[in-house]
Amino acid sequence: METNELKNNIRRLRFEKGEMTQQQLADLAGVTRQTIIAMEQGKYAPSLPLAFRIAKAFGVGIEQVFEFTETTPTKTA
Amino acid sequence: MNRIQKMAWWMAIWISAGVILAAIAVAVMFWVIGMPWSIARAGLAFLGIAGFGGLASLIFKKDKGKITCDERDRLINNRAAVAGFCAAFLVTGLACMLPFFILGPEATISVTWLPNIFMAAGLATFFVHSVAILVQYGWRGDGNK
Predict the structure, then answer these.
(1) All residues at 6 or more sequence positions from A23 whose CB lies less than 8 Å from its CB, including other chains
(2) Which pLDDT score is estimated for A70?
(3) Residue B7 predicted with pLDDT over 70
(4) Which A-chain residues 47-76 have CB contacts (< 8 A) with chain B?
(5) Could you identify which of A62, B46, B47, B129 might form a hypothetical disulfide with A55, taking C-beta atoms 3.0 to 4.6 angstroms apart as the criterion?
């Protein structure tokens, strides 16, 4: 069975953007700080519009913020 | 912990308290004291305590900050609402089917059970809705670090 995983570089990008706080990013993206935290921890996959807003907040392309990995685990008997 | 989580905790605690106290009161009056069921069931009045859960929106003020509710909060609330309605369906289904299988098709039951079933379904809805919110956010609200 295929499993899809959405990884993100939000934490790294925040620090590269002059130690931007989670609250500052949340305000720019129009979400709560809890949602930013959940995304950084990989517990929440954002909607496409939110993903674009986050990328815009960092001033980068969406593919630089989010990475989609498709893995196909091997079957065990 | 945001306002929605605090409200969910408040609701879950009051509903639990009401159900536990009602169960204890009925059990004590029926089995320990030996009262007839028609009197012992008055212990169910303790379920009224669950009504305090409805004060949550008055007690917990809106969170500070520009954004207080976003797409994740709405998604969590929608999922919790679905879980709550599923619980109500399950309770109503069991309340309808169990007497049939336990008492048999020829038995009769009092219509006073109908408002009780309605109340049980309502309690189940609110309780499961609250627990589902807490589970999805994480019990301790550890998404704040």
Answers:
(1) A33, B65
(2) 78
(3) yes
(4) 47, 50
(5) A62
Let me know: does A34 contact B143? Beta carbons within 8 Å: yes
Domain boundaries in chain A?
3-71
B8 lies within 8 A of chain A by CB? no
pLDDT for A15-40, tens place per residue?
998 889 999 999 999 999 999 999 99
Binning pLDDT at 50, 70 and 90, where does residue B141 land?
Answer: low
A-chain residues near B67 (CB < 8 A) = 26-27, 30-32
DSSP tally for chain B: helices H, then strands E: 5, 0
Assess whether pLDDT exceeds 60 at residue B107: yes
- Interface contacts A/B by beta carbons within 8 Å: 42
Question: What architecture is domain A3-71?
Answer: Orthogonal Bundle (1.10)
Which of A26, A27, A50 faces B71 most closely, judged by CB atoms?
A: A50
Taking contacts as CB-CB distances below 8 angstroms, the residues of chain A near B137 are: 34
CB nearest A38 (choices: B66, B68, B143): B143
- What residue spans define the domains of chain B? 3-60+70-144
- The Cα B87–Cα A44 span in angstroms is 25
CA pair distance A6, A45, nearest whole angstrom: 7
